[in-house]
Write a structure and sequence with these properties.
The complex is a heterodimer. Mean pLDDT of chain A is 89; it is low at 10-18. Chain A has a domain at 96-237 and 248-271. In chain A, strands 3-4-5-6-7-8-9-10-11-12-13-14 form a twelve-stranded antiparallel beta barrel. In chain A, strands 1-2 form a two-stranded antiparallel sheet. Chain A is mainly beta. Chain A is built from two helices and 14 strands. Helix content of chain A is 8%, strand content 45%. By secondary structure, chain B is mainly beta. Chain B has one domain: Beta Barrel (Lipocalin), CATH 2.40.128.110. Chain B has helices at 2-16, 72-83, and strands at residues 21-34, 39-44, 47-52, 57-63, 90-97, 108-119, 122-134, 140-149, 168-180. In chain B, a hairpin with a 4-residue loop joins strand 3 (47-52) and strand 4 (57-63). The longest helix of chain B is centred in the N-terminal third of the chain and has 15 residues, at 2-16. Chain B is elongated, with a radius of gyration of 19 Å. The two termini of chain B are 27 Å apart. The chains are: A mainly beta, B mainly beta. At the A-B interface, helix 1 and strand 12 of A face helix 1, strand 3, strand 4, helix 2 and strand 5 of B.
């Protein structure tokens, strides 16, 4: 009899253990998320995707060098460059966008495609995205008379590969080999030199300071003959629907071809204040 | 010998039960955040639950990674910065009925449950009320609505642009539960 009760005991225990539901994750294959706070990181595009039918609106500004002091309100009075960028997610992987930068009045259309996504179980250790675009310089050069550039002189093209890894909750890093070509790199444009092609290696770092705030780093060493390096340092603040990005950079440039070909300045010549406002929304 | 039969009867009852147990066949959770200048909602269809009238047990959970608000970047921020789903993947409730309900077929019955409600790793003792209705098919329909204050679960509301996110979320559960052997 005692033996029988002993035999029953584990059955009864087993039954009571099943009283509560076992907690099981709905999906065990989860991608690593928020490698960066937004689709932009200081000036560079990131591997951070948009979902199907969502828009990203980025409003980006850079100003004059901060060494003007209070007289120019640390550069805010001088030489603002403003870029408005709107990007739309056609799927989980593909988005198309357009931007307009005030410097040289450049309209630029681009596509971004996410080939690989880093996975939480490390089955894929990296995220890899590609981006390419073409644009047109629409600045008014009437004053040049007959030398005024025509449409064939005004085209710009660029392409880049974004390779990123979120190493931990605290640290993410992206390497972005970039290439740009101007159909006719005229000296009247805000570019540094006349080259057949302009290349650079974008380096983006994110160091998370708190759940909603990160320190941001940027370097874009140029690869073409007369290249200067763009340096940037800033802070990203995620504030319930918006991501604010405040930074100091050596370059005024904001769109991809000009980030490579433009005057990227020197750290000793002074940094410029810049900021981006990022908003992602789905109107329908 | 009589005790012998008693034990077998107890065993059979434990193993087979009398169909007083229901498990979710489908379950949906929706939260609604109504802040001053921005309202949005999030939904998951992964609500899992169990109602056992014999043991007086009500046990529900949802994997918060499955909540979708319609904007991917907002979902990622919600998971990463607010709910911290890597550390605290589930919202869960385990409790019991204040009074075990009779469930006449076809009639909605208001029920009250009390127990432990855990979100973001913080456990709160809560009492929720809802409606249970037993269908002709034997399935149970559950509907419940309740409020959750983010500060009760140590979920931080952003100080900058605080008008984007309500400090109190309205939660609605809708589930169909199927009778099972315990």
């Amino acid at each position: 009899m005692k033996k029988f009760v002993l035999l029953l005991f584990p059955v009864l225990c087993f039954s009571s253990l099943h009283a509560q539901l076992e907690r099981k994750p709905a999906n065990t294959e989860l991608p690593v998320e928020l490698t960066f706070h937004a689709p932009r990181h200081i000036n560079l595009a990131t591997v951070e995707p948009l979902e199907n039918k969502t828009f990203h609106l980025g409003i980006m500004h850079t100003f004059g060098t901060v060494d003007g002091g209070l007289e120019s309100l640390f550069g805010l009075d001088n030489g603002a460059n403003i870029q408005i960028v709107l990007e739309y997610g056609l799927s989980e992987r593909l988005s198309l966008g357009a931007s307009r930068s005030s410097r040289d009045k450049v309209y630029y259309a681009f596509g971004r495609y996410h080939l690989l996504r880093q996975m939480q179980d490390n089955s894929m250790p990296l995220s890899l995205s590609v981006m390419a675009g073409a644009g047109v310089i629409t600045g008014n050069y009437d004053f040049l008379g007959a030398a005024e550039p025509d449409f064939s002189d005004r085209q710009v093209y660029s392409a880049q590969v974004m390779l990123a890894r979120k190493f931990s909750d605290k640290f993410s890093f992206q390497v972005t080999p970039m290439l740009a070509v101007f159909s006719n790199p005229l000296s009247i444009y805000s570019i540094q030199s006349r080259e057949d092609w302009y290349g650079g290696l974008g380096l983006s770092g994110k160091i998370r300071l708190s759940p909603k705030t990160s320190l941001t780093l940027q370097g874009i060493p140029g690869l073409h003959a007369s290249a200067e390096t763009n340096y940037g340092l800033g802070v990203d603040i995620e504030a319930g629907g918006h991501v604010f990005q405040l930074y100091l950079v050596t370059s005024q440039m904001l769109n991809e071809p000009y980030l490579l070909a433009g005057d990227n300045g020197q750290p000793l010549d002074g940094f410029r204040f810049g900021f981006n406002v990022n908003r992602v929304f789905a109107p329908w | 010998m009589i005790r012998w039969y008693g034990l077998v009867a107890l065993l059979l009852q434990t193993m087979l039960g009398f169909s007083q147990t229901w498990k979710t066949e489908s379950g949906k959770v929706t939260f609604l955040s109504e802040a001053k200048f921005n309202s949005f909602s999030g939904t998951s269809d992964q609500l899992q639950g169990l109602i056992d009238l014999e043991k007086n047990l009500v046990d529900f959970y949802v994997d918060l990674n499955t909540l979708k608000t319609g904007i991917g970047l907002r979902d990622r921020h919600m998971r990463d910065n607010y709910l911290e789903t890597k550390k605290f993947p589930y919202a869960e409730f385990t409790g019991s009925f204040a009074e075990i309900p009779n469930l006449p077929t076809g009639q909605p019955v208001r029920v009250e449950v009390s127990g432990k409600f855990k979100v973001h790793g913080v456990v709160q003792s809560r009492t929720f009320s809802g409606i249970l209705k037993k269908e002709n098919s034997g399935e149970l329909l559950l509907e419940a609505t309740f409020e959750v204050k983010l500060e009760d679960h140590k979920i931080e509301v952003p100080k900058v642009l605080a008008y984007e996110l309500a400090t109190q979320e309205s939660i609605t559960l809708v589930a169909t539960l199927k009778s099972v052997q315990p």
